[in-house]
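Please, structure for the following, as tokens.
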Amino acid sequence: MLSLIGIFLSLFFGAISGVSAVQNIVVQGADFVNNVTSDRFQIIGIAYQPGGSAGFIAGSGIDPLSNGTLCLRDAALMQRLGINTIRVYNLDPSLNHDLCASIFNAVGIYMLLDVNSPLPNESLNPEDLSSSYNSAYLNRVFGVVEAFKNFPNTLGFFSGNEVIQFPGSEGVAPPYIRAVTRDLKQYIAKHSSRNIPVGYSAADVRDFLADTFAYMSCAIDGSSSDETRIDFFGLNSYSWCGGDATFQTAGYDILVQMFGNTTIPVFFSEYGCNEVKPRVFDEVQAVYGPEMTRVMSGGIIYEYVQEANEYGLVDLNDNGTASIRIDYDNLQRQFNELDIERLQSGNSTATTLEAPRCSAGLISGGSFSKSFRVPSLPSGAQILIDNGIRNPNIGKLVEVEETSVEAEVYGSNGGVIQNLAIRPLPEDQSNTPSGQDTTGETSTGTPRGEEPESTGGAGHLQMNLLLTCAVLVGLALR
């Protein structure tokens, strides 16, 4: 009996002090899959880049994942919204991201991370590819890997974003994107305890789109182990505009046809046209409907914070408070209608598909590169891959002690949202839409259907374990 008590006490104190982690997401054929449950993972995501590209300043000590207080507030709002993935564009690999990454992990939100930035020598320059592809650039790319490789909620890295966009880039850039993809995969294989997928995010330039996808997703020499081949393909598309748009007028039927034989996960790495305001997000039902999900794996709404381009769901006020916009409410209602059980259903055929062999015949555009000779590593890069970068800033999961949001956040009706907090998920689950109405919880007192919580989402588990231990101790002492 005493040994049994010891087991329960260990469980209890482990629940208090242990750091739980989401289950890794892996690529199996055309699907993202939970590596424990084998459930299909559909991305229900949002772009997260407070301040936009202007908000990333080298040496400032700030990037989107460096301030735990702000991440706690935003994670709480994203959790209520139903988000399971964030995309972060510009990161400083020298900063500490442990708390922010751990907060998003606690609420079941994964991270898709760009390894490039708009700063000089921190991305491929389409106008000077051979010079911009150098070891200093790769040192920065590998630094992002070091900073995020140990977080279980790191879903993947983008090796490039809209590199192929302007006339002329389609003829020279593709081999270089495959080169960076290869370099990332080799570095991850040598310096990470698990395989982390690497993909590409493409602009919706229909003249190049099909060829970009075919070029990036084929396997050179037909080898399934081709390190230059992307693991997933993201599409930045804003073709569905307003409540009058349809599956056909938005061209979604064309996308289904274009990606119908995909052998890797395909998803919208950005979507959410704002030509009609406020946005109603009718396309959500199409993105996660049966026609699209048999081919694609969800999408990432652009974007979380309201900037000058007016795509945001949340206003950040000068006094440190935040206000959710009606667009947030509209998106929340759309997410609440999703059939999560159907979205998680696996497709055994999709997970066993083989990549096509690379050949010039896959490319239809006359100006698009038909060369699959990938550039060799630049001088000094092999040493970085073999030995690792010098003095890497290696991220690690930490305990999330605070769950309540201190700053006031206002609903779209102007009322203060009551009891705003993150709720760490039990059993290492990923987040899903929960049917909440966040603006509807702005009345004084306890939100509808909720009880005040002071112990976070794990509190109920801890209390149950404590009560069980108390019963067992009582039995042992009788």
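The chain is about 30% helix and 10% strand. The CA atoms of residues 24 and 160 lie 23 Å apart.
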